[in-house]
Design brief:
Blueprint (H helix, E strand, L loop, with lengths): L2 E8 L2 E10 L4 H13 L5 E12 L1 H17 L2 E5 L3 H10 L2 H5 L14
Parallel strand pairs: 2-3, 3-4
Antiparallel strand pairs: 1-2
Length: 115
């Protein structure tokens, strides 16, 4: 099955609906969609909605880790919404859910005022 992506923006929150299989062949497509979204108008929250996800393998998990790196660098909070049981199990076994969904730290100025 192919990957199906659709987007919806509400203010500064972008929802990217992910359906089908997130695997070695399709993960690059999701990463490209996220990269394009982050290059667009100001986004503070990225919601990946997995309601229609049917499969995720290790390449998909690797892609989610890369997406987290991209969103953190951009100061965007990543949300993994409506996770199916199979994805939840992968996240539980690997222990990365909290890592992926922790709000990115804002850089605080030092005492000298330099960030």
């Amino acid at each position: 099955m192919n990957l199906m992506l659709s987007t919806d923006i509400d203010g500064t929150a972008l929802t990217l609906r992910v359906g089908g299989d997130l695997d070695y062949q399709s993960t690059g497509e999701l990463i490209a969609a996220v990269s394009a979204a982050l290059a667009g108008p100001s986004v503070t929250d990225l919601h990946l909605d997995f309601t229609e996800l049917t499969f995720c393998d290790s390449a998909g998990l690797s892609g989610l880790l890369l997406i987290h790196r991209k969103t953190s660098t951009a100061g965007v909070h990543l949300h993994l919404d409506h996770r199916p049981a199979q994805l939840q199990r992968i996240l539980d076994i690997t222990g990365v859910l909290d890592h992926l969904t922790t709000r990115p730290a804002r850089e605080q100025p030092s005492e000298s005022g330099i960030v």
